C-alpha cells in the first residue's frame, strides 16, 4: 500500500470513499498506511447506524497496493439496520374556538414519525360529535401526515378524546 498511498494520499482517500459508494455510515480508522514485509496491520472498520432508516446497507471496500500479484482487494461490507418507529403529536389538545350548535369546524392535526422505521397507525377513534379522517395511515421514517379532526355539535358539549392507536409505537390521546 505504501507506494500508491504516498504518491497522492488525498486523491486515494477520495477514490476509496467513492468506491465505497459514499457510504457515510462506514468509516475506516485509517485511509493510508505502510505494511512492512512479513507483517500485518489491522484497520478498524466502523459501522454507524445512527439516523439510518431500517434496511440493508451495502458497500465495497477496495484497497489498492503496490503488490504486483494483488494490486486490488475488494471486501464487501453489509450493515442491516432494524429501525424503531416513533409517534409524535405536538398538540396535547385541539381547540376549535367558539362553536355553535349545528355549525362545525375542522382542524388539522399533524402526526410525525421521527423514528427510523415505518409507523403504522391502525386506528384513529373519536366519539360523537367528533370525527377524524383518515382513520388509519402509514408514516414513513422522518415523515409526517395530517389528520383532519371535525367537530359538529348537535347539543352543548365540552370535550372528547381523540385516540391514536399504533401497532408498532404505542398509543396516544389528544
What does this structure look like?
- By secondary structure, the chain is mainly β.
- Helix content is 10%, strand content 38%.
- The chain has 2 helices and 12 strands.
- The strands form 4 sheets. It has a 4-stranded antiparallel beta sheet, with no helix packed on it. The chain has a 4-stranded antiparallel beta sheet with strand order 9-7-11-12, with no helix packed on it.
- The N terminus is likely disordered.
List the helices and strands and how they pair.
Elements: H1 2-7, H2 9-19, E1 26-28, E2 45-47, E3 55-64, E4 72-81, E5 88-89, E6 105-113, E7 119-125, E8 130-133, E9 137-139, E10 143-151, E11 163-166, E12 172-173
Antiparallel strand pairs: 1-2, 3-4, 5-6, 6-10, 7-9, 7-11, 8-10, 11-12
Q: Main β-sheet: number of strands, strand sense, barrel status?
A: 4 strands, antiparallel
Overall strand count: 12
pLDDT under 50 segments (min length 5)?
Answer: 1-15
What share of residues is helical?
under 10%
What sort of overall outline do the alpha carbons produce when their principal axes are compared?
rod-shaped
Measured distance between first and last alpha carbons: 61 Å
Kindly estimate the percentage of residues that lie in beta strands according to DSSP: 35-45%
Q: Taking all residues together, what is the mean pLDDT?
A: 81
- Write down the secondary-structure element order: HHEEEEEEEEEEEE
Tell me the number of helical segments per DSSP (H or I, 4 or more residues long): 2
Neighbour order of strands in the largest sheet: 5-6-10-8
Amino acid at each position: 500500500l505504501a507506494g500508491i498511498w504516498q504518491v497522492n494520499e488525498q486523491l486515494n482517500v477520495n477514490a476509496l470513499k467513492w468506491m465505497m459508494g459514499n457510504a457515510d455510515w462506514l468509516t475506516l480508522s485509517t485511509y493510508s498506511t505502510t505494511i512492512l514485509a512479513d507483517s500485518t496491520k489491522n484497520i478498524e472498520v466502523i459501522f454507524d447506524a445512527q439516523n439510518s432508516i431500517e434496511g440493508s446497507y451495502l458497500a465495497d471496500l477496495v484497497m489498492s497496493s503496490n503488490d504486483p500479484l494483488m494490486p486490488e482487494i475488494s471486501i464487501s461490507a453489509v450493515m442491516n439496520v432494524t429501525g424503531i418507529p416513533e409517534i409524535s403529536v405536538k398538540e396535547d389538545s385541539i381547540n376549535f374556538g367558539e362553536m355553535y350548535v349545528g355549525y362545525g369546524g375542522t382542524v388539522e392535526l399533524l402526526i410525525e414519525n421521527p423514528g427510523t422505521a415505518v409507523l403504522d397507525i391502525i386506528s384513529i377513534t373519536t366519539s360523537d360529535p367528533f370525527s377524524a379522517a383518515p382513520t388509519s395511515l402509514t408514516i414513513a421514517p422522518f415523515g409526517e401526515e395530517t389528520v383532519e379532526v371535525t367537530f359538529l355539535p348537535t347539543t352543548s358539549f365540552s370535550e372528547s378524546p381523540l385516540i391514536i392507536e399504533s401497532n408498532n409505537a404505542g398509543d396516544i390521546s389528544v
